[in-house]
Structures are given as structure tokens and as C-alpha cells.
Design a protein that fits this description.
By secondary structure, this protein is α+β, with helices and mostly antiparallel strands. The protein folds into two domains: 136 residues, Fructose-1,6-Bisphosphatase, Chain A, domain 1 (2-Layer Sandwich), CATH 3.30.540; 108 residues, D-Maltodextrin-Binding Protein, domain 2, CATH 3.40.190.80. Helix content is 32%, strand content 27%. The strands form three sheets. It has an eight-stranded mixed beta sheet with strand order 4-3-5-6-7-8-9-10, with helices on both faces. The chain has a five-stranded mixed beta sheet with strand order 12-11-13-15-14, with helices on both faces. Strands 1-2 form a two-stranded antiparallel sheet. Strand 6 and strand 7 form a beta hairpin. The longest helix is centred in the N-terminal third of the chain and has 22 residues. Belongs to the inositol monophosphatase superfamily. Keywords: Hydrolase, Magnesium, Metal-binding. InterPro entries: Inositol_monoP_metal-BS (IPR020583), Inositol_monoP_superfamily (IPR051090), Inositol_monophosphatase-like (IPR000760).
């Protein structure tokens, strides 16, 4: 696939990801802490004009650069394409965004459907000025290499999740049992937690109820930093995954977590 409108070079792809994230960041910061109104979608999750404007702009930019690619966005759904599909979460952590907390981000991923792999992923934190970009070649934070921690024992691990509200009662019981075996547990952060893991600041992240646009970008960021990310059955994440996700600094920690989650 040498056609520039189908398969970009590695350097060209990184540049385009940054262009997308820059555009999203500009819109997000324009509306952040501005008293922006929000509506509730059918699933009762909130959505703001920032979510909608960011996705519209990213779709426009992708359509101009890669007109044959598909796009799956949180706000607009799936537009099918050829081979490659972009997964977009314009504001991951909309509740944080609405309440003035800076722990919201934009998630962007490019999936090669033919090879069934996530070619590249980005976590951008507009209010914090932090940006992780991951590929098979590695992960960077603000263009510097990012690496996971060396913790291998659950008792030494710092474990995070965004909120107990995202778990079913049975899933929460599993997470509660797991997290109480860790060194300590913390709550809140949405996609920022995975950036922290990729940079070695925590060791495990376990969540449920995620959608494909929530986790596709996380895969290359975590794996490029030397970590692992799977579903609760230990299987690789795909667009068909059930939304229960566990990310770990290494296989040893993953296996210890799966013993509780499976």
C-alpha cells in the first residue's frame, strides 16, 4: 500500500497525528472552564459542543488527507472505509471536562483492519500539555521515550481505575478483591491513567464498560512502552471486545491480575 492516500509513512503518520491532536487541543481549551453547556445522550453520558466540534474537525482533516479510510467516532458512529479505520474519542473524560478538572484527553487511533492491528495511537491531555504517541517502534511522551515500571509483584503494584460506577456488581467484586492485594489503589483519571502506566508511574489499570474508541488508542501506547493490555480473559483487544480492559507493566503482573478477574 504505497499510495499516500492509503498508507502513510511512519514520519508522515506521526506528523499527522500531532496535527490532529493540535486541532483537538485548540478546540478543547477554548471551551474548558468556560461554563460550557452539555446534553445527555441516550446512554445518559454527557456531551458538549467541544466533543462534537472536535470530532467534526478531526473527521474533516482525515477525510481530506485519507479519503479512503474509515472513521469510527464516539459522537457520529462508523463511516466505513478501505482497510484502515480511525478511532476517535474527542473528549475522553467529559465529566472531568465539564467540572473543570484537567484530567480529560483526546484519543486517536489508526487500525489496519487487514492486518488486525492498531498501527498507531495517541493520548493527548490538552490542559496538562502532555501527549503520548505509540507505535510498534516505541512510545513517547512529548517526543521523549516512555517506559513502563519494573514492578512484577501485585503486592508492590499501584493500581488505578476511573470509577467504581463503571463496573457491574460482579465485576466490581473481582476488581475490589484484586485491588486490595495491591500496594495501594487510586480512582479517577480516565485515559490519563494509561499514560501514567506507559511512563512508569503506576503499574496496573483495570476498567470495564469501555467502547472501541476508548481503548484502541491505548493499545500501541501501552505496548510501545513495554507493557501489555488485554481483556479480562487475557485476549488481545479488538473492536469486538466487551469493554473490560486490563493494562499492566508486564506479563507477570497481568497474569496475577487475571487470576482475580477471570
Amino acid at each position: 500500500m504505497s499510495d499516500a492516500q492509503s498508507s502513510p509513512s511512519a514520519s508522515g503518520l506521526a506528523t499527522f497525528f500531532n496535527d490532529l491532536a493540535d486541532a483537538a487541543r485548540t478546540v478543547a481549551l477554548t471551551h474548558f472552564r468556560s461554563g460550557v453547556d452539555f446534553e445527555r445522550k441516550q446512554d445518559l453520558t454527557p456531551v458538549t459542543i467541544a466533543d462534537q466540534t472536535i470530532e467534526q474537525e478531526l473527521r474533516r482533516m482525515i477525510g481530506m488527507r485519507f479519503p479512503r479510510h474509515g472513521i469510527c467516532g464516539e459522537e457520529t458512529g462508523l463511516t466505513p472505509g478501505e482497510r484502515f479505520t480511525w478511532y476517535l474519542d474527542p473528549i475522553d473524560g467529559t465529566k472531568s471536562f465539564i467540572s473543570g478538572m484537567p484530567l480529560f484527553g483526546t484519543l486517536i487511533a489508526l487500525v489496519d483492519e487487514e492486518e488486525d492491528r492498531v498501527a498507531a495511537g495517541m493520548i493527548d491531555m490538552p490542559a496538562l500539555g502532555e501527549r503520548w504517541y505509540g507505535t510498534a517502534e516505541g512510545t513517547t511522551l512529548n517526543e521523549r521515550p516512555a517506559r513502563v515500571s519494573r514492578a512484577t509483584r501485585l503486592e508492590q503494584a499501584q493500581i488505578y481505575t476511573s470509577s467504581p460506577d463503571f463496573f457491574s456488581p460482579d465485576d466490581w467484586a473481582r476488581y475490589d478483591a484484586l485491588s486490595r492485594k495491591a500496594m495501594f489503589r487510586r480512582f479517577g483519571g480516565d485515559c490519563y491513567l494509561y499514560g501514567l502506566l506507559a511512563s512508569g508511574h503506576c503499574d496496573l489499570v483495570v476498567e470495564a464498560s469501555l467502547k472501541s474508541f476508548d481503548f484502541m488508542a491505548l493499545v500501541p501506547v501501552i505496548e510501545g512502552a513495554g507493557g501489555v493490555i488485554r481483556d479480562w480473559d487475557g485476549k488481545a483487544l479488538t473492536r469486538h471486545s466487551d469493554g473490560r480492559v486490563v493494562a499492566a507493566a508486564n506479563e507477570a503482573l497481568l497474569e496475577q491480575a487475571l487470576a482475580f478477574l477471570g
